[in-house]
Design brief:
By secondary structure, this protein is of the alpha+beta class. The chain has one domain. The chain has four helices and four strands; from the N terminus they run ββαβααβα. It has a four-stranded antiparallel sheet with strand order 1-2-4-3, sandwiched between helices. Helix 1 packs across helix 4. The longest helix is centred in the C-terminal third of the chain and has 15 residues. It starts with a strand and ends with a helix.
Length: 103
């Protein structure tokens, strides 16, 4: 599993985690979390396409070239957001689900 963003300096972070699971398509991760575990996440580029491309290491040239190809699917990520309404058991349930999905 790859977690995107600064994972070292976390003192000023909010409860938003953006990630990928190696070898599992992001659409499948989101669907498995929703259908199998009742965990709502977002999947895609989150209306932040240039930022997501930079995090994923994809150049503008690669995106433009891909857009000229039939069936092009831009790289995406999964995002989960925790809020003050979530409790520790929900975080634990998400982590357990991710252990099963990621193998």
């Amino acid at each position: 599993m790859t977690v995107y963003g600064d994972t070292e300096d976390i003192a000023d972070k909010v409860g938003v985690i953006t990630f990928d699971v190696e070898g599992v398509d992001d659409v499948d991760v989101a669907k498995q979390l929703a259908d199998g575990y009742g965990v709502a996440v977002r999947q895609g580029e989150f209306c932040a396409h240039p930022y997501c491309h930079r995090l994923l290491g994809v150049s503008d040239e690669e995106i433009v070239a891909g857009m000229k190809t039939d069936g092009f699917a831009p790289p995406t990520m999964v995002r989960i957001s925790f809020g003050m309404y979530n409790d520790e058991t929900e975080v634990d349930a998400f982590l357990a689900a991710m252990n099963e999905i990621a193998g």
